[in-house]
Amino acid sequence: MTQIKARSLIDGAASAAAEAAAAYPPSERRRRLSPAASAVASQKVPAQYSVVVIGGLVRLADLCLIGAAGLLPGLARLGGLASPGWDYAVASAAVAIASVVSFQAFRLYDIHNLRTPSTSLVKTAAVWSAVLLLCAVAAIAFAPSDAATRLWLSLLFPAGLGLLLVSRLVVGGLVKSWMQQGRLTRRTVVVGADGNGQALIAMLKSQPDTGIEVLGVFDDRNDDRSLQACAGVPKLGKVADIVEFARRTRLDLVLFALPISAETRILNMLKQLWVLPVDIRLSAHSNSLQFRPSAYAYLGNVPTIHIGEQPIQDWDLVTKWLFDRIVGGLVLLLISPILAVIAIAIKLDSPGPVLFKQKRFGFNNDRVDVFKFRSLYHDQADPLAAKTVTKGDKRVTRVGRFIRRSSLDELPQLFNVVFAGNLSLVGPRPHAVQQKLESRMLDEAVDGYFARHRVKPGMTGWAQINGWRGELDTTEKIQKRVEFDLAYIENWSLLFDVYILAKTPLALLKPEGAY
């Protein structure tokens, strides 16, 4: 029965976004936080570094260092060779791969091993020695008369060991520094200010290697069942306050400490929290769940179940960042003559600056300044987009009408992509912070509107190439945009971005709704 309830909860969480219209508040204005929550949110917090990416970079460094050690010209000459040669290059690559696989098997790339050089150095030396010993045994068994290979291995051992130990000392120092700065800790809030929450926090505190920093506790109750502090961690507010809290400070994980029997309460809370770009987990420390161990994600020794994840993270985030900067930079270079021609045309057409900045919603509802070519008369500029541009709008200049219909006015947003980094090439299109639909803010017109801000906004998107661009004058148009934006977020891949970019020029040939 418990397993059935747990599976029901996971299925319910997966469909929470689709059901949000029934429970999500009709609008999202800034909430007033409690003094305790405000104090935490006002602290200066550095950006987080991904432990997954760090582990991957250390693996790559090991491959390069071991490969380089095997190809050192000095080693090659002492081995009786005039140059390293392809055979030794292949051998170096094989040893490097075998070593990295062995290090991985002994979990030497886990962050808790990387941050403790005293342990990491001993383990690294032991595993490296075992790998080279096996290679030596294989060399003797298959080529007993090949003295050059045995000499090469005998020289590779100290050279590779020295490079690996030095790299571990450097990595250990960096990781320790990043830990002290809070860049590798997961800033976490616990939902459930009761005995379960208290037990969970105590378990996390007793394990120093979890990488979890519990900021506070939230609860959906205000009666005596809700404690004001759990295991020394203060209660910061109600569950509805988490959304505002996460937009004022870095929040990485929401951890539910509620029992599986509270399925209805958890689902109702998830419908409020799914708009956030954070991981959401259900702790199984107090439940008799009968899942396989592989079904759990562990925080130290605390078993948890994923019920919501940050959409784009770790290597996916690195890939998207590189794609934006490299492709965006190349496009900017190629179209620079077009930008110059448009700028001259705007300057000759009407007085005023060529560019203007507009406040728009960015990642996690941050306000970002987005660059555009000026398309309205300067004295009638509307940087907050309080009044939507409509067909035949007298505020639009002659050049402005052309560049708006062709979306050429959006090209300066490449500066946001390449230099500021607050926009992507592909993502949900950012809307102006004061943009309205029939006198209502957009988040008032569409339930769950802010869920589209779980990823960085983009210059073009899935909604735009499917015909949903231009003027927002009906509820259906904004609903369709949100629908396509959420589909993009849930199905993101680099190939998806490439496909959308390739289709964008064709979509611009159909300027319906762009005024």
The portion of residues forming beta strands comes to 5-15%
Task: Supply the helix-strand structural class.
Answer: alpha/beta
- The low-pLDDT segments are 16-28
Number of beta-strand segments: 14
Which features would summarize this protein structure in a list?
alpha/beta; Rossmann fold; 515 residues; single chain; 8-stranded mixed beta sheet; flat; two-stranded antiparallel ribbon
Give an overview of the whole structure:
The structure is a single chain. The chain has 515 residues and is α/β, with parallel strands linked by helices. It folds into three domains: 2-48 and 185-310, Rossmann fold (3-Layer(aba) Sandwich), CATH 3.40.50.720; 51-181, no CATH class; 315-508, no CATH class. 50% of the residues lie in helices and 13% in strands. It is built from 20 helices and 14 strands. An eight-stranded mixed sheet has the order 3-4-2-1-5-6-8-7. Strands 9-10 form a two-stranded antiparallel sheet. It has a two-stranded parallel sheet with strand order 11-14. The longest helix has 35 residues, at 147-181. The protein is flat. The relative contact order is 0.09.
